[in-house]
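Q: I'm writing a short explainer about Pyruvoyl-dependent arginine decarboxylase AaxB for a general audience and would like to include a description of its predicted shape. Could you first generate the structure from this sequence?
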Amino acid sequence: MFLTKGVGRHKEKLTSFEMALRDAGIAQFNLVRVSSIFPPGCKIIPKNKGLEYLKPGQIVHVVISQESSNEPNRLIAASIGVAIPADSEQFGYLSEHHAFGQTDDKAGEYAEDLAATMLATTLGLEFDPNTSWDEREQVWKMSGKIVRTFNITQSAIVDKTGLWTTVVAAAVLIP
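A: Of course. Here's the predicted structure. Afterward I'll give you a sentence or two in plain language.
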């Protein structure tokens, strides 16, 4: 699997989405959205390496987040959170989060927290949902059951003239 992100702007909403996919390097594939499971034994590789395994026109499975707006100066964000279990035989989680008014850091942290929370509940880890993400992250990592969490996030400010702006973040699964 590889992670990617992009932003596109155009007078047409659909074309702004296409431009975001181009910026992310995945417009040449037939993308099929899938739910948010990080497969057991899966490895994350750099985008340029992952693209070597794919051919234009190929059906490619993705976990993708996208957000669009044409409201001038509006902040938009799309993020994928990843939570990988310590046991490589166990599946992990990916989460999609898209928002208005959130920076890369805020949207990314939220997506990462979503993925980690889903994994923690699957693994039976106890937690107080009212504690901060930083506190829960430390407890879960110290448990030895969650080895790594991270995110990829794209945010953008909508063009001041009102062009459609689309942001995407994606986890691309390689067959």
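A: For your explainer, you could say: Residues 2-172 form a domain with the Pyruvoyl-Dependent Histidine Decarboxylase; Chain B fold (CATH 3.50.20.10).
Q: Perfect, that's easy to follow.
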